[in-house]
Amino acid sequence: MDKFTILTGVAAPLPIQNIDTDMIIPARYLKTIKRTGLGSGLFSSLRFNEDGSDRADFILNQTAYRKASILVAGDNFGCGSSREHAPWALLDYGIRCVIAPSFADIFFNNCFKNGILPIALPQEVVDRLMDEASKGANATFTVDLEKQTITTPDGESVGFDVEPFRRHCLLNGLDDIGLTLQQVSAIDAFEAQQQTGQPWRWAR
């Protein structure tokens, strides 16, 4: 997966609590196991009218936020079903960071496995960031994972915590497969030793 080091981009305010995974990507989009193309269905029940036209009142349809790469959202983001399509859809749309007071556990874990940084902060801090994100095209945040800081348009710096192992994986672009491939030399050595010492395990 792509490394996450420093992200500078527009932050879109989404002050809705309990945004569940069905709201993020409705069940009708779950027929695919591909990670690409799901961005078109992101928040589709909020983004589009029944005829498929844009809903002008939805934040990501507003000109200033169409290319947002950061979301500032309400409490309990990503609740509901465990569908991994939810972070896939966010990532395919271009969202690399979600800031909220809390996240559902499975969604939180899935974000890290797909190169998205979920940041949990106290409600009063999220409220301040939500206000900053409401500045339209001027709502540019810089999220520095190395320093673990968020810098707002007015220069305020907000710190956040990330578990060290997850931080390491994001900084180095390591998903589960990438972590396994780091051990390929040890795996090859083990297999070679086993083929010599226990050849029947390799009989075909």
TrEMBL record:
Its EC number is 4.2.1.33. It is an enzyme of class 4 (lyase). CDD domains: IPMI_Swivel. One of its GO terms (cellular component) is 3-isopropylmalate dehydratase complex. The keyword Protein transport does not apply. The keyword Cell division does not apply. Keywords: Amino-acid biosynthesis, Branched-chain amino acid biosynthesis, Leucine biosynthesis, Lyase. It catalyses: (2R,3S)-3-isopropylmalate = (2S)-2-isopropylmalate. One of its GO terms (biological process) is L-leucine biosynthetic process. GO terms for molecular function: 3-isopropylmalate dehydratase activity. Residues 1-124 form the Aconitase A/isopropylmalate dehydratase small subunit swivel domain. Pfam families: Aconitase_C. Pathway: Amino-acid biosynthesis; L-leucine biosynthesis; L-leucine from 3-methyl-2-oxobutanoate: step 2/4. Catalyzes the isomerization between 2-isopropylmalate and 3-isopropylmalate, via the formation of 2-isopropylmaleate. PANTHER family: 3-ISOPROPYLMALATE DEHYDRATASE SMALL SUBUNIT, 3-ISOPROPYLMALATE DEHYDRATASE SMALL SUBUNIT 2-RELATED-RELATED. HAMAP family: LeuD_type1. NCBIfam families: leuD, PRK01641.1. Belongs to the LeuD family. LeuD type 1 subfamily. Heterodimer of LeuC and LeuD. This is 3-isopropylmalate dehydratase small subunit. The lineage of its organism: Bacteria, Pseudomonadati, Pseudomonadota, Alphaproteobacteria, Rhodospirillales.
